[in-house]
Amino acid sequence: MESKNKEKSAERLAVSKIRCGTVIDHINAGKALLVLRILGIKPGSSERVLIAMNVPSKKMGKKDIVKVEGKYIGEEELNRIALISPNATINLIEDYRVSEKRRVELPSVVEGILTCPNRNCITNSREPIKSRFHIVKKGEEVRAVCHYCGRRICELDRYVV
Length: 161
Ligand code: CTP
Ligand code: ZN
What we know:
By secondary structure, the chain is α+β, with helices and mostly antiparallel strands. Helices cover 16% and strands 36% of the residues.
């Protein structure tokens, strides 16, 4: 009984509303930590962030949510989330209200987000070269092709920096 109450209050805390900032909703279940990585939120970061993982969703069964308070994250940065969660929705919150809602859009090129698995690729040498991938959609599947060596990768989750 007590553990059930704990679970409930934990859920309420995780999904509490924010005053202003960016809410990334409908993230594929279990991918919230990758979303943080894509947004550059790492140990030591000072952003105020609420994360909910594997919460029930009518549309998706289970989903993750990331809320970044007090910050309007740029479109380009947010669109990178489409690499791992193409159905994620972005909600900009102003004064407790949703002022804008849209879906993430797959970028055609991403820099510095994915790593190339080809050991001989110049991006894995000592040269200070940022990775650069061209994104292609094949049916439902998203793939990326290294700009420098042509290596093609699927299952992009595995290659997020
Ligand atoms: N949200 C928030 N703080 C607010 C307002 C909304 O954190 N002040 C969050 C909600 O918790 C939800 C998302 O922003 O995760 C979208 O809010 P809303 O459009 O009200 O919810 P839904 O109608 O359920 O969204 P959708 O139709 O996109 O499923
Ligand atoms: Zn490469």
